[in-house]
C-alpha cells in the first residue's frame, strides 16, 4: 500500500460538494426578530447576485436574445432591395484577364418577362427590377485596365487593425476600392481553370485589407472543356479557394437558370457589416450636375442624386467625397425614384411587354424639375464647420530667448578659448585637439603652411599648363573624318529618363541593403560637419530607462493639430449621444439630391469619365486634423524598397489621401526606434 501526500492546492472541492447547514448555536429566530425591532438590513445585494438566474430564466433569456437577432437579420434582408429600402448594390469584379463581365451581364439581364431592365448610360451599370418578387438590384462593373485616376506611385491600404500592404499601379484599382466601400455585395468572376491572375491577387489583398463586404463567387464559361477536364479544373479551383474564401460556394454562370440561382443567393445571404459605414450615411452617385458660380467656373454647387444607405442623412452635417475632400451641404431635395418597382406610365404611352423603362437622367434634371420636393435646408447656426486646423496662439508656451548681447558674449567666449598648436602636416582638427604644444610656435606654423600652400599652387599651375599644351598639339593634328546618315528612330528621348530612374532605384536598393546590414549605424557626411548633421539628435544613457518628454522641442506646426485628452472616451460619448438624439433627415432608402457647396469642377469631370462618385457623411470632429498611427505589414509580393518620408497613398476606411509617413518599430516601450525603410519581415508603426 502506497500513500501519496497531496501538496498545497492539489485538490479543491468541486461545485457538487455537499454543503451542510451551519450550527445556529442557540440563536432563535424569534429572539433575533425581537432584538431587531422590525428593522430591515440596508445591505443591498451585489450586481453579480442579481444577474444570477435560475435555469428556466436563463433559457428564456437566451431564447429571447436568439429571437431578437434572428428578427434583426430578417429585417435587414427584407429591407435591402425592397420597395422601402435602397436597391441591392452589386459590384462585378473580374479577377482574371481572360474573364469579361459582358457575358455575365447578358445572363443577368436575360431574366423572365417580369424583370424590368434600366440602362444607366454613363453611370456604368444597369438595374434589375422584379415587381413579382418585390426586389430590385443595381449592378456596377469594375473593369481592369482602364485609365485610372492620377494616383500613381506606391500606395498603402490600411484599416483600424493590423493589415496587409501592397504596392502596385493597377489600371482602375482605386475605383474598385471606392466601389467596395459602398457595395452591398461583391460578385467575383473567376476563370474556370486558373481562378485569378497576379492582378486579381493584388485586388483581393487590397479588398481584404480595406474590409470585405458580402460576396459571391461565380465562374462563367468552361463549357468548352471536356467533362473530365472540367471536373479536374473545378477540384483544382476549389482547392485554391480554401485559402482565400473558406466555406465559400462556387456558382456556375452559363445559363439563365444558374443566373437566377445566383440572384437568389445574393438576395438571401447574410450581410457582412463594416464598422466605418454602419455609423455613417453614404451613397453612390446615380446622377450629378455641376452649377458653376458667377465669380469663377472652377468652383460651384454640385447636385448629386443617389439612394441613402447606412444611417439617416442630415443636411447640417459635413459630407466627404472620396478622393476629393470634405464639403458642406446647403439643401436636400427628394426627386422621384427612378428605380421604383411601380413606375409611372405617361398617358398615351404603350407599355412594352417586358415593362422596360429607359433612364437617360445623367443630366436629365429638366424632366423631374416639377416633381422635386425640398426636404430640408441647412441652418448656419447648427451647421458643422469646415475648420480642420487649430489657429495657434503665439503667446502660448512663451519662452525666454537670449538677447543679442548674450549671443555676442557667447561667441566671444568661444573665440577666446581657441588655441593654436604646432602639429604635423596632414593632421585633422580632431587629432590636433588632443596635442599639447606651446602657443608661441603658432605663428611659425602658420608661415610654414602658407609656404606649403604656395608651393602646391605653383605645382598645380605647371601641371595644368602642360595639359593645355598637349591638348593644343592634338587639336592641330589633322583627323580622318567621314559622314554617315543616322535615322531618327535610333534616338530615344526617354532613354535618359529611364537611365535616371534605374539609377535612383538602384541607389534605393543599396540604401535599403545597407540599412538592413547596419541598422544602428549612420555614416558621417563629408561635406557637412557632424555637429551640424546630428544637431537634431540627442544622446540617451539608456534607451529603455532614460526620460524623454514627447512634447519637448516639437515643431511649430504641431500647434495646428487637434489633440484629444481621451480619444476612446470621446468616441463612446459621441456614439451614445447620437443614439439618444433623434435627428431629422433623409431616411435610409430614400432617393435624394444633395446640394454640395464650393466643389471644384474636377469632381464632376472625373464622374463624367466613368469613375465612381462616393459620398460619406462625417461624424462630429471627423473633419479635424490630428496624428494617425497605423500598424502595417509589407505585402510578400512587394519587392521595391519603400523609404520613410516618401509620399504614399492611404486607403483608410472611407478616406483616400496622400501623406509622407514616418516608420518606427512596434514595441511596448515609451520610446520607439525610427526605421528608414519598411521592413519585409516585421510589422511597423506608420
TrEMBL record:
All residue ranges annotated as the Bms1-type G domain in the record: 86-272
Swiss-Prot/TrEMBL GO biological process terms: endonucleolytic cleavage of tricistronic rRNA transcript (SSU-rRNA, 5.8S rRNA, LSU-rRNA); maturation of SSU-rRNA from tricistronic rRNA transcript (SSU-rRNA, 5.8S rRNA, LSU-rRNA)
Stored SMART domains: AARP2CN, DUF663
Residue spans of biased composition, Acidic residues class: 436-461, 469-482
Subcellular location: Nucleus, Nucleolus
Gene Ontology cellular component list: nucleolus; preribosome, small subunit precursor
Family annotation (InterPro entries): AARP2CN (IPR012948), Bms1/Tsr1 (IPR039761), BMS1_TSR1_C (IPR007034), G_Bms1/Tsr1_dom (IPR030387)
Entry keywords, A to Z: Nucleus, Ribosome biogenesis
Keyword Repeat: no
MF GO annotations: GTP binding; GTPase activity; U3 snoRNA binding
Residues in coiled coil: none
Compositional bias (Low complexity): 1-15
Region annotated Disordered, chain positions: 1-70, 335-360, 379-412, 432-501
Record field: compositional bias (Basic and acidic residues): 51-60
Similarity remark: Belongs to the TRAFAC class translation factor GTPase superfamily. Bms1-like GTPase family. TSR1 subfamily.
Function field: Required during maturation of the 40S ribosomal subunit in the nucleolus.
Protein name, per record: Pre-rRNA-processing protein TSR1 homolog
Gene label: Tsr1
Amino acid at each position: 500500500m502506497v500513500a501519496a501526500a497531496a501538496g498545497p492546492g492539489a485538490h479543491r472541492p468541486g461545485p457538487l460538494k455537499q454543503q451542510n447547514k451551519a450550527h445556529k448555536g442557540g440563536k432563535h429566530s424569534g429572539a433575533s426578530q425581537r432584538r431587531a425591532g422590525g428593522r430591515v438590513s440596508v445591505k443591498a445585494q451585489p450586481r453579480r447576485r442579481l444577474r444570477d438566474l435560475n435555469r428556466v430564466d436563463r433559457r428564456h433569456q437566451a431564447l429571447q436574445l436568439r429571437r431578437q437577432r434572428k428578427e434583426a437579420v430578417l429585417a435587414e434582408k427584407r429591407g435591402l432591395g425592397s420597395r422601402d429600402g435602397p436597391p441591392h448594390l452589386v459590384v462585378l469584379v473580374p479577377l482574371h484577364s481572360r474573364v469579361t463581365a459582358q457575358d455575365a451581364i447578358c445572363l443577368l439581364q436575360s431574366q423572365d418577362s417580369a424583370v424590368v431592365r434600366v440602362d444607366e448610360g454613363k453611370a456604368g451599370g444597369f438595374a434589375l427590377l422584379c415587381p413579382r418578387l418585390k426586389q430590385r438590384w443595381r449592378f456596377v462593373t469594375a473593369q481592369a485596365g482602364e485609365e485610372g485616376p492620377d494616383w500613381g506611385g506606391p500606395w498603402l491600404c490600411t484599416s483600424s487593425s493590423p493589415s496587409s500592404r501592397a504596392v502596385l499601379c493597377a489600371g482602375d484599382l482605386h475605383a474598385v476600392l471606392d466601389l467596395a466601400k459602398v457595395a452591398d455585395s461583391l460578385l467575383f468572376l473567376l476563370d474556370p481553370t486558373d481562378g485569378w491572375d497576379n492582378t486579381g491577387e493584388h485586388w483581393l489583398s487590397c479588398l481584404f485589407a480595406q474590409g470585405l463586404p458580402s460576396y459571391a463567387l461565380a465562374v462563367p464559361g468552361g463549357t468548352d472543356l471536356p467533362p473530365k477536364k472540367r471536373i479536374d479544373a473545378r477540384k483544382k479551383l476549389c482547392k485554391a479557394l480554401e485559402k482565400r474564401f473558406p466555406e465559400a460556394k462556387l456558382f456556375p454562370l452559363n445559363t439563365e437558370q444558374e443566373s437566377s440561382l445566383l440572384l437568389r443567393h445574393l438576395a438571401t445571404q447574410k450581410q457582412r457589416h463594416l464598422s466605418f459605414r454602419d455609423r455613417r450615411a453614404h451613397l453612390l452617385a446615380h446622377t450629378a450636375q455641376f452649377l458653376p458660380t458667377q465669380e469663377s467656373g472652377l468652383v460651384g454647387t454640385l447636385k448629386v442624386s443617389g439612394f441613402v444607405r447606412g444611417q439617416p442623412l442630415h443636411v447640417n452635417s459635413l459630407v466627404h467625397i472620396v478622393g476629393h475632400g470634405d464639403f458642406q451641404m446647403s439643401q436636400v431635395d427628394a426627386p422621384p425614384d427612378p428605380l421604383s418597382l411601380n413606375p409611372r406610365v405617361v398617358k398615351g404611352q404603350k407599355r412594352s411587354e417586358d415593362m422596360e423603362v429607359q433612364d437617360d437622367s445623367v443630366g436629365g434634371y429638366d424632366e423631374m424639375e416639377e416633381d422635386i420636393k425640398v426636404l430640408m435646408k441647412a441652418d448656419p447656426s447648427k451647421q458643422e464647420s469646415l475648420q480642420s486646423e487649430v489657429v495657434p496662439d503665439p503667446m502660448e508656451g512663451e519662452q525666454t530667448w537670449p538677447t543679442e548681447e548674450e549671443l555676442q558674449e557667447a561667441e566671444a567666449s568661444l573665440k577666446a578659448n581657441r588655441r593654436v598648436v604646432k602639429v604635423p602636416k596632414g593632421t585633422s582638427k580632431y587629432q590636433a585637439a588632443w596635442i599639447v604644444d606651446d602657443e608661441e610656435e603658432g605663428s611659425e606654423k602658420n608661415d610654414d603652411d602658407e609656404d606649403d600652400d604656395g608651393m602646391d599652387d605653383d605645382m598645380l599651375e605647371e601641371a595644368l599648363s602642360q595639359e593645355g599644351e598637349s591638348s593644343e598639339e592634338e587639336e592641330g593634328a589633322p583627323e580622318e573624318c567621314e559622314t554617315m546618315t543616322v535615322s531618327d528612330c535610333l534616338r530615344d528621348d526617354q532613354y535618359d529618363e529611364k537611365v535616371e530612374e534605374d539609377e535612383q532605384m538602384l541607389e534605393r536598393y543599396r540604401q535599403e541593403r545597407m540599412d538592413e546590414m547596419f541598422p544602428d549605424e549612420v555614416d558621417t557626411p563629408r561635406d557637412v560637419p557632424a555637429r551640424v548633421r546630428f544637431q537634431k539628435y540627442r544622446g540617451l544613457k539608456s534607451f529603455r530607462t532614460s526620460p524623454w518628454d514627447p512634447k519637448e522641442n516639437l515643431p511649430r506646426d504641431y500647434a495646428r493639430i487637434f489633440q484629444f485628452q481621451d480619444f476612446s472616451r470621446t468616441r463612446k460619448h459621441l456614439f451614445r449621444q447620437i443614439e439618444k438624439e433623434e435627428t431629422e433627415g433623409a431616411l435610409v432608402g430614400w432617393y435624394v439630391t444633395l446640394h454640395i457647396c464650393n466643389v471644384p469642377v474636377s469632381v464632376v469631370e472625373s464622374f463624367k469619365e466613368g469613375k465612381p462618385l462616393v459620398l460619406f457623411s462625417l461624424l462630429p470632429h471627423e473633419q479635424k486634423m490630428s496624428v494617425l498611427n497605423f500598424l502595417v505589414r509589407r505585402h510578400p509580393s512587394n519587392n521595391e524598397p519603400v523609404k520613410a518620408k516618401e509620399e504614399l497613398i492611404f486607403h483608410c476606411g472611407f478616406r483616400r489621401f496622400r501623406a509622407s509617413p514616418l516608420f518606427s518599430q512596434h514595441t511596448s516601450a515609451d520610446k520607439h526606434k525610427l526605421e528608414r525603410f519598411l521592413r519585409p519581415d516585421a510589422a511597423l508603426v506608420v
